[in-house]
Amino acid sequence: MAYVSLYRRFRPQTFGKVIGQGHITRTLGNQLKSGNISHAYLFTGSRGTGKTSVAKIFARAVNCLHPLEDGSPCGECDICKELSNPANLDILEIDAASNNGVDEIRNLRDNVKYMPVIAKYKVYIVDEVHMLSAAAFNALLKTLEEPPEHVIFILATTEVQKIPATILSRCMRFDFRLLTIDELVKLLMNAFDGIGRKYEHDALVALAQAGQGSARDTLSLADMCVSYCEGEITYEQVIDALGICSPELILNMTEHILKGDVDSALHELNDMYKQGKSISGISREIAGMLSNISYAKNCAGANSFLKLTVDMYERVRKVAADVENAKILHAMEVFCYLDGELRYSSLPKVLLEMSIIKACEISSDFTQDGILKRIKALEERAEGMALPIEGSKSAAPSAPVNGDKIWGEIIHEVIRDNASVRVLLDSYTPSCEVKDNILYAYFADENTCRVIQTVSDIIFDAVKRRYPEITALKILSGTGRTQTDIEIEKIKNLAGDGRVFITGGNSNG
Ligand SMILES: Nc1ncnc2c1ncn2[C@@H]1O[C@H](COP(=O)(O)OP(=O)(O)OP(=O)(O)O)[C@@H](O)[C@H]1O
Ligand SMILES: [Mg+2]
Ligand SMILES: [Zn+2]
User: Fold this and answer.
1) Distance between CA atoms of 489 and 493, rounded to whole angstroms?
2) Model pLDDT, residue 480
3) In whole angstroms, what is the distance from residue 335 CA to residue 363 CA?
4) Which of 209, 215, 293, 303 is most buried, with most CB under 10 Å away?
């Protein structure tokens, strides 16, 4: 007999066998029992979570002669037996991905009027319904509006956002959710027990984690392991078969990154290459491990859902305890970004290496050395800006400030915020100085001063934002670098608490 893949062999046949969608199977079961059924359903949710399976169960249940307690089909009566034959004419499965045109839907519309052959209801299951063309949706709409009494539609899709609102509003909608690790482990247990294979529990957890919430993906991966593993399905063999790095290796790597240890991280990476691990796999697993570390650090009892092995969780917690959240977040940012980039890169290996080094560098910025370096750089910047910093040289009351530098910075700020001012400031560059907390800007002539005056409020706002200690902006014509202290005093009084004013001619006059 030809080999039947696990996910086909273990397609649930009753509501009770459907894992993780109790909110849906219970509602449908109750509707069946009370006879209060709808004529159009929409099943949405991620791939491999049970949409088609539940649609098939429902299609048989609604026709079954002796339904079970929970509303499921009995599987024994004549109708159930007939309907389990894929060639039956009363449960019609239409794959919208390959029949997406208006002709197919018109055809469906014409056939809808014919009575079922043996059953009470004719059930149309339209899979991947989001693939229908706009014209086909319109044709379907007509039928959905007034379906004959003997017809039930079940539309299924992974992409509900592509379904027109007119269709949505005519269907009873059920959202299938991703399965948890525990649920997937249960599914795997059933499957392996069903085919009589022994397994280690950790092997099931590794498979469930790789399945990412999809029952079909998990069973497909399990299929691969069944062929790969000799005898018992062990954790080691599963890791090997899936081509994923062992969590220990990934944790080592992540720890090096968080400690800023480039040397060890790159050595570890080469070990992974040697084992034939894929670039994108390594990147994704580091991101996943960073997420584990973040959970372990910030969320008490996180392992109730992370489902790491006890030893592994202990190690993750230890790493998490020694590292600040900021470091974890920065590293996460690097690797989340990387996953998208890798898809389009012609040099994925270099990209991965670059990202590891980058993440290490960021982490070492947070070491004591790194922090001291950054403080020094900040102090130097502050000195240039004459911001008083306690204990630093710039705390002296009359530290020289470079007016031109301030102007340059202000221009940046104003330019960033205001395109029309940019044109003006680009055309006229003053020479500037700061004296006694007043910023003097000297333009070539009076006319320029008048032009600049029209935007002086905006400029002064920008100055105040960055240099609150500056009390006035004075726009002048001429060069005027030779003012005396007495004149500045006068200006300061005039300027009050920061009005902008304009003076014609040289300020010496
Ligand atoms: N909730 C579930 N409980 C048990 N098995 C499931 C469940 N969901 C999926 N499976 C398994 O996965 C296989 C595929 O499921 P199904 O075709 O119902 O998924 P689907 O949601 O329709 O996926 P797709 O969106 O790709 O069409 C089933 O044959 C079954 O083995
Ligand atoms: Mg399906
Ligand atoms: Zn039956």
Assistant:
1) 6
2) 58
3) 13
4) 215
- Fold exhibited by the domain 6-176: Rossmann fold (3.40.50)
Question: Residue 181: CB within 6 Å of ligand 1?
Answer: no
Ligand 3 centroid to Cα of residue 494, in Å, is: 97
pLDDT tens-digit map of 315-339? 999 999 999 998 999 999 999 889 8
In CATH terms, the superfamily for domain 403-503 is DnaA, N-terminal domain (3.30.300.180)
pTM over 0.70: no
**Ligand 1 within 6 A of CB of 211:** no
DSSP 8-state secondary structure symbol assigned to residue 230: -
CA distance 215 to 183: 9
**Other CB atoms within 10 Å distance of the CB of residue 426:** 10
Reported CATH class of domain 181-242: mainly alpha
**Mean of the per-residue pLDDT values for the chain?**
85
pLDDT of 244 reads 82
